[in-house]
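Record 1 of the preview.
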Amino acid sequence: MPPTPIKAARSDNALYGKVAWRIIPLLFVCYIAAYLDRVNVGFAKLQLQSDVPQISDTVFGLGAGIFFLGYFVFEVPSNILMEKLGARLWIARIMITWGLVSTAMIFVNSSWIFYGLRLLLGFAEAGFFPGVILYLTYWFPSRRRGEMVALFMLAIALTGVIGAPLSGWILHQFSGRAGLKGWQMLFLLEGIPSIVLGIFVPLLLANGVRSARWLNAEEKQILEQNLRAEESHQEHLPFAEIFLNPRLLLFAVLYFCCAMGLYGTGFWIPQLIKNTGIKDPLDIGLLTAIPYTFGAVAMVILGRSSDRSGKRRLLFAMASLMGAVGIVISNLFRQDTLIAMIGLTIATMGILATFPLFWPMPTAMLAGTAAAAGIAWINSLGNLAGFFGPSIVGWFTDLTKRSDYGLYVVAGALVLGSFLVFGFVPRELGADKAS
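->
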């Protein structure tokens, strides 16, 4: 007698729970290391500018953002290579090289070295995030990806919760150790974990369902059948068409709006808190953890809700507008620490929640090599916002001596994203029915 639908669903849930517990924690820890090495420059800025006078707010904003130009160049080739060479070795390569470049930031003594190392960091890290998004498609059908992407991307929030106080503490406690400034110790101590993790990734990560020794034959068959059933509804685009496909370009623009929110505010949160009158780096780090704590909760709740309800477009639009409103509140009350923190918390909750709501939409339409190149193409184009967002805020800050004008541009991008998702994303991609 065949299993009832309820028993089959429970069996599937248990199996996917097993898969999630096996791969998500490792990817999660790796992304904490990646994101920390990407954004700790925001904390280094609190001391770096006094030691290296060439680094004005404009130079800092450009240097923070130039990372994404290197990121843009290598995203698509990196994902295609991962598809051919396997996730284990390729993710390890990415982590070790970015860890080495991140620690080399201790040698910054001019604006050009700052630019060069940030560009190299983008080259080194390119492919990690889209590689993981692609890797999740090897295991989970689209109806389960919202929660999985949310659990993986919780690393961004946890980096803020743990990494911000850690960065503040390093600046506070380690200045002068080993003859290095506090900001140099920050880059050194936070770059080493990426190298260590990269060494262990090949030992702990399976390339896919077939090579997972911790699954039995029946479990592998179930996972592969579920993925094959979904592939019949996905597109296998020719490689040459990927770069001009209207849907992929739409998703790239939509992702650009999300990333404008994330990086337009993320690199500047420590400085925004300092501008309210908080001076001690450790206090700034502890306060920075508050928005990210609430952001973590919002990511999981909305990611899980989108899987169950299928209302990805509606929830994405709500989260994006929430991010814009929070930015406006923090700007209007930028001299009041309490209200500014409330605004930053609302903004961070909305901005972080857009990501697990976004990625299940484009990955639901792509399969095969199209998935590898398409995910990387969306991510590389969208992440150019990581160049423009910090640069715009830095340029406006130097020009007007106020950061709020640039942040209003960031808020406008989030509002645009909320309209685009309803106006142009097909209902079948933005409103998948949970099963």
